[in-house]
Write a structure and sequence with these properties.
This is Glycosyl transferase. Residues 72-184 form the Glycosyltransferase subfamily 4-like N-terminal domain. Residues 190-351 form the Glycosyl transferase family domain. Strands 3-2-1-4-5-6-7 form a seven-stranded parallel beta sheet, with helices on both faces. Strands 10-9-8-11-12-13 form a six-stranded parallel beta sheet, with helices on both faces. It is elongated, with a radius of gyration of 22 Å. It is built from 15 helices and 13 strands. By secondary structure, it is of the alpha/beta class. It is 43% helix and 17% strand. The chain folds into two domains: 2-180 and 358-376, 3-Layer(aba) Sandwich (Rossmann fold); 185-356, Glycogen Phosphorylase B (Rossmann fold). It has helices at residues 15-25, 68-82, 101-111, 121-130, 135-144, 153-162, 165-171, 185-188, 215-227, 243-252, 267-275, 291-298, 329-341, 343-354, 359-376, and strands spanning 2-6, 29-36, 52-58, 91-94, 115-118, 147-150, 175-177, 201-206, 232-237, 259-263, 279-282, 303-306, 321-324.
Length: 377
Amino acid sequence: MNVLQLCTYYIGNKLHSKLFSNLNEESLQQTIYVPIRNKGLNNRNLIKGEGLELHYDLILKRYDRYLYKGKINKQMKRIETIVSSLQEFDLVHAHTLFSDGGTAYLLKKKYGINYIVSVRNTDINTFYKYALHQRPFIHKVLQNASAVVFISHVYKQKTLQLLPDNLVNSIEEKSYVIPNGIDNQWLEINKRSKKISGPQINLVFAGSLDKNKNLHTVLRVMKESLKTNEKFFLNVAGDGPLKDKLIDFTNRSGFKNKVHFHGHVSLKNLIKLMDESDIFILPSYKETFGISYIEAMARGLPIIYTRDEGVDGYFKEGYVGFSTNPNSVDEIKKNINKIIENYEQMSMNAISESKKFNWKEISNIYLRLYRKIINEL
């Protein structure tokens, strides 16, 4: 198979480089097109391998945000210049709906190459929400895709609810949910299950200290636990704009000896911190997927996650943890106690389920989808 990968957000994180590297190990021929905005991004997350071509293209300008049709036409012309023999590709994978999907649609119209498109958070919550005049075109992008990929069950449902009914009817059967994978370091040291070693329950929060990640509600849980003499201790890994306010709230509320703000921690130290904790808690208001939940599960931690966000829908309620109303202190406390009652089984379930999120397995899911589409042509 020979696949053209269109990946506008390639340099933003290492998720795509890990996916493409694993696909390369399966002998997939890949040409990766990465439009960039400045020279400093050239060769960011560079990967190499036989049968893999990676093209960074210094093409993006500030005005491209406002001239969408011009941007995707420009990208198509650049791809025609950079990539030889476009007709030799079996498939195009557009890794965003707007920036990459629009270009993939134009390539199909001109060269007849089928494509799949992945829908991301900014596609729906920013571009689709505000670029009303582009919606008819984006509907065509979805309509003409051979497959539409979402990162979570919840996000698929939310997106389909935004689209016109006739469009939903035409794309629902070709819609797939394929999650991100986790770094192999989380899975390297095999764990069977954890046990709570003493009367103190060690909670851990890992994420940005901002309004969305909602550490404030977790701190309110800690404050309420003082009234009932529940022995909770909270480790906080992360930094952010609300750090000083959250520390001040902790100090003023009289439980600073029960919370440790670690700040930004390395991957190695974060794994160590997870191993020293009992329950992972992250009641974000908005969470497209939430890889931190899966990382915690890999270390045997049951999780508390937000209802109708992120990983909700991947697991049966109470199997690896519990969903919660992100503003409900009482519900979060009840969920902590329900986890404690069945801790070892949930820990074992969490470890087992986390293994499905390794990059090799995720890449194999994509390979099967690629083959399915190509064989149906």
